From TrEMBL:
<dbReference type="Pfam" id="PF01168">
    <property type="entry name" value="Ala_racemase_N"/>
</dbReference>
<dbReference type="InterPro" id="IPR026956">
    <property type="entry name" value="D-ser_dehydrat-like_dom"/>
</dbReference>
<protein>
    <submittedName>
        <fullName>Threonine aldolase</fullName>
    </submittedName>
</protein>
<dbReference type="Pfam" id="PF14031">
    <property type="entry name" value="D-ser_dehydrat"/>
</dbReference>
<comment type="similarity">
    <text>Belongs to the DSD1 family.</text>
</comment>
<keyword id="KW-0456">Lyase</keyword>
<dbReference type="GO" id="GO:0036088">
    <property type="term" value="P:D-serine catabolic process"/>
</dbReference>
<dbReference type="InterPro" id="IPR042208">
    <property type="entry name" value="D-ser_dehydrat-like_sf"/>
</dbReference>
<feature type="domain" description="D-serine dehydratase-like">
    <location>
        <begin position="258"/>
        <end position="348"/>
    </location>
</feature>
<dbReference type="InterPro" id="IPR051466">
    <property type="entry name" value="D-amino_acid_metab_enzyme"/>
</dbReference>
<dbReference type="InterPro" id="IPR029066">
    <property type="entry name" value="PLP-binding_barrel"/>
</dbReference>
<dbReference type="GO" id="GO:0008721">
    <property type="term" value="F:D-serine ammonia-lyase activity"/>
</dbReference>
<dbReference type="InterPro" id="IPR001608">
    <property type="entry name" value="Ala_racemase_N"/>
</dbReference>
């Protein structure tokens, strides 16, 4: 079994396992799908580890997308020089972005804008600090989570962003994470349909005499669709570690599970029932109980319930299972699962010899 660890008896549980060789293969596969490392804005929200960012840098990936200021600082700590924070920063976060720029002056940090009012605030604060705020216009092409609608006002907003003295707009951010059809052809059709108005907007920008914007599009589900689109940057994230949810749904994406949860049997309270030390503090619990973890070395089971530190499982082979047995599981949703751990055990050649800090899970590192 590829996931078995020779020195598992030395590892505490529950714990996060990262299989380094598989991470490397997934990075190479991402680059292969994109056609080149240059086309990737890999999202670090999935892995949150400087060492994995360093692996991507070594493979030629130089641009990263982040969900938080802490993740952007983590990229800088790892040696990355180009990070887009994929949020519209408001309140104290604008000042934090200024401080981030000041601490790492050789790193390109950008953020998203979809509001004229917030653009003015960025312009004022960055102007007071004699800096220019690098931004991308966040475009809502159907997900309805953030971004400006593709209506008759969006061109005026782009013109405004282009004319503010302490703000520089570099292009468009178009996230269509709501398009998750299992069939690739159906998903591609939906992605292409959702991109028609984006193309019209790009034509309008150029017709207005403005510089041609770069476009960063999609996440992991749309990766294989947008990779076929000329002059579009792709921003997958989950691919680096992969998970059960996307593994079953996105069959055309041949990535490998590279992050597992190690748990142990801690009780057999009743015939047919075992309990493991994997409660909902150990694996992402935002989905129903049947979509949280898939055990790889356990058969004929059903996860019945979880509390904070316990997972209760119905099993058919109750007599063959012993208290203390190690069970390996792949999360349904790896991104928030990684965020539950301060550190990960790194598996290489079937052994763990080091741990990596999940540094990006912090809300604040130094800024």
């Amino acid at each position: 079994m590829w996931f078995s660890i020779n020195n598992a008896n030395e590892l505490d549980s529950p714990s996060l396992l990262i299989y380094k060789e598989r991470v490397q293969k997934n990075i190479e596969q991402m680059i292969s799908i994109a056609g080149s490392a240059e086309r990737l804005f890999t999202h670090v929200k999935t892995n949150k580890m400087p060492e994995i960012v360093k692996m991507m840098l070594a493979a030629g990936i130089t641009k990263f997308k982040c969900a938080t200021i802490a993740e952007a600082e983590m990229v800088a700590i790892a040696g990355g020089k180009h990070a887009l924070i994929s949020h519209q920063l408001v309140g104290p976060k604008i000042e934090r972005l200024v401080k981030l720029r000041q601490k790492y002056p050789d790193v390109f940090f950008a953020s998203l804008i979809d509001s004229a009012e917030i653009a003015d605030v960025h312009n004022d604060i960055f102007g007071q600090n004699k800096l220019v705020s690098d931004v991308f216009l966040d475009v809502n092409n159907g997900m309805n989570r953030s971004g400006h609608e593709l209506n008759d006002q969006i061109l005026d907003l782009y013109k405004k962003l282009s004319n503010l003295s302490h703000l520089k707009v570099h292009g468009l951010h178009v996230y269509d994470g709501h398009l998750r059809a299992s069939d690739f052809n159906e998903r591609k059709k939906e992605c292409d349909a959702g991109f028609v108005d984006v193309k019209h907007f790009l034509e309008a920008i150029e017709a207005a005499g403005l510089l041609k914007p770069i476009v960063i599009a999609g996440g992991t589900p749309a990766f294989t669709s947008h990779a076929l689109r000329d002059e579009t940057y792709c921003s997958p994230g989950t691919c680096v570690l992969w998970d059960w949810g996307y593994g079953d749904k996105l069959s055309e994406q041949n990535f490998e599970y590279a992050a597992l949860i190690l748990t142990r049997v801690i009780s057999k309270p009743k015939h047919g029932i075992i309990t493991v030390d994997m409660g909902h503090k150990a694996v992402a619990a935002e989905n129903p109980i049947d979509k949280r973890i898939r055990f790889l070395n356990l058969e004929n089971y059903e996860l019945l319930g979880q509390s904070e530190e316990h997972g209760v499982i119905a099993v058919k082979d109750w007599d063959s299972i012993k208290v203390g047995d190690v069970i390996y599981g792949v999360p349904y949703h790896v991104c928030p699962t990684v965020n539950l751990y301060d550190e990960a055990y790194i598996v290489e050649n079937e052994e763990v010899k080091e741990t990596w800090q999940v540094l990006g899970r912090k809300r604040k590192i130094s800024i």
